[in-house]
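Handout, page 2. Input:
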Amino acid sequence: MTMIIETSSWGKIEVQEEQIIHFNKGIPGFEEETQFAIIPYGDNNPFSMMQSIMEPQLSFLVVDPFTLEPNYEFELPDHESLELKIENNVSVLCIVTLQASLRESSINLLAPIVINPVTNQGKQIILHDTEYATRHKLSELSGAERLLAKEGE
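Output:
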């Protein structure tokens, strides 16, 4: 099933049902927004847009954190696994805050978005007892070198 959604960046676009992630309690700061579409930027681009289904002005740049920081790891608390009904498969995205250049942009590794790809249920999890922060510069991540080298192209 497809649906047309309104975005502030791309106007009206068509998304597939499997692109829509359901957040039962919204995401922190946007609790009323419970459905977001994950829209890839292109085939060879690691970034996607997480666009609210209901609010065209609300979107987040997201990326699979493991593409930028292969050593990124955290333990998902049991109660979060149960809430999302995660058995084997899990997808993780992190929000990127853009600056004038990718090199100066940052990624929030403290609060990953965890998704059950089987049920398309998601939740932003705030990690505890970790050294991760809300703003890690992309230029300081071990896997970002290839990405940043392409920035000038």
